[in-house]
Amino acid sequence: MSGTGHEGRGVVVTGAASGIGRATALRFAREGAKVLVADLDRAGAEATAKEVEAAGGVALAVVGDLSEQQVVDTVVERALESFGRLDVLVNNAGIMDRMSALGETDDAEWERVLRINLTAPFLLTRAVLPHMLAAQRGSIVFTCSEAGLRGGAAGAAYTASKHGIVGLVKNLAVMYRGQGIRANAVAPGPTATGIQVDAGPDAHGPGIVGGLIGANIGRLGSAEEQAAAIVFLASDAASFVNGAVLPVDDGWAAV
């Protein structure tokens, strides 16, 4: 145990089948937490849970679309049944858009990105809050993005969804700080994960965004570096940190 206060805690990590979510689940487990791995990818979620257990941790996997209320309810019920407590929620699951500018963003792209990136974490946070409030404690960490801090890091849909996450974090911090709840976010810069961008070859947005990103980013980060920041924000070591959006980006936000 590294002293960050996660021993015995019940933790939910979404999007934990791979990338930042997987690294976060494993790091929490190494620090003594019990981890529920939630993802749409059954094989990946179950593999992460097995990795946690192989390392001596406690984990279970719940598979489903977190923008559906029934799946959200199952996640919360299973966590409480298995762990007896729910101390930390990491809203990490998300998808990229096609880097589309607003004028070339169709309804399907807009609705899918907002549903997964903004509505799903809203639903899960709303479901978790009554249990955290009853305990008068809880930490909620969101994976935001550089696209939540600026306009030139992604397309219109993704940028809007991540700016929405920033608003949720700040509102949660203000509304519930007197009841033992903290809400924060990391804003990753380019990170080595499996996320893909399916940009149209003649689209306007990718050309604009590509030039801005290429001119300003530093090195490529690792999922483990993002996980370290998430686990810190959830920990007692960050007990006075509330409503913060922490860039984890090798200084990109400072440019």
Automatic annotation (TrEMBL):
It comes from the Bacteria. GO terms for molecular function: oxidoreductase activity. InterPro entries: NAD(P)-bd_dom_sf, Sc_DH/Rdtase_CS, SDR_fam. Keywords: Oxidoreductase. It holds the Pfam family adh_short. CDD domains: SDR_c. Belongs to the short-chain dehydrogenases/reductases (SDR) family. This is 3-ketoacyl-ACP reductase.
